[in-house]
Amino acid sequence: MEKLTNRSVQVNRSPMTIGERAYLPSILKGLGITLGHIVKKKATVSYPEQKRPFSPVFRGLHILNRDEEGKERCTACGLCALACPAEAITMEAAERKAGEENLYREEKYAAKYEINMLRCIFCGNCEEACPKDAVYLTETVMPANYNRQSFIYKKEDLLIPNPKQQG
Ligand code: SF4
Ligand code: SF4
Hints:
The protein is of the alpha+beta class. It has two domains: 2-39, no CATH class; 62-165, Alpha-Beta Plaits, CATH 3.30.70.3270. The protein has helices at 2-7, 18-21, 24-39, 79-83, 125-129, 155-158; strands spanning 62-64, 89-95, 108-116, 135-137, 152-153. A three-stranded antiparallel β-sheet has the order 2-3-5. The longest helix has 16 residues, at 24-39. It is elongated, with a radius of gyration of 31 Å. The model has no long low-confidence stretch (mean pLDDT 91). The site of one iron/sulfur cluster has 14 residues, from helix 5.
């Protein structure tokens, strides 16, 4: 019992002022903080109507590029898939047939090219590895979706429109 008495702390119980009893200082302090937040620059943006500027090194959705004549650049060499640490890229190569010279730049092309965006970590290795400047990461943010299958981007989704076929 004696030990407990030795540890006791003296509490300052000075009587509250009228202002303190009416909670006025605390109310005014709270209002000040609220008003401060109203005039302060907001950290949030109304996405997707409003977009915030990205870093110049931001990497977003991929595109498959065409050359200046509108031909597909990708030759299905597979280097991007090899360089991908997430194994997100799958492709099937095919040989160009007679009459398809306007479609594909070289004799081999990607008949199928898919990127699983749920696996992709947007590292940019595929872009670095591509010897044909065929795959690029753009500044487009990947949109949300409702099912996993929608995150597998096929060649039709990735390939940029042919400028020669646009009106
Ligand atoms: S950005 Fe990286 S993770 Fe994504 S597909 Fe390319 S290499 Fe793979
Ligand atoms: S995108 Fe580039 S690296 Fe990938 S298969 Fe096509 S040519 Fe090769």
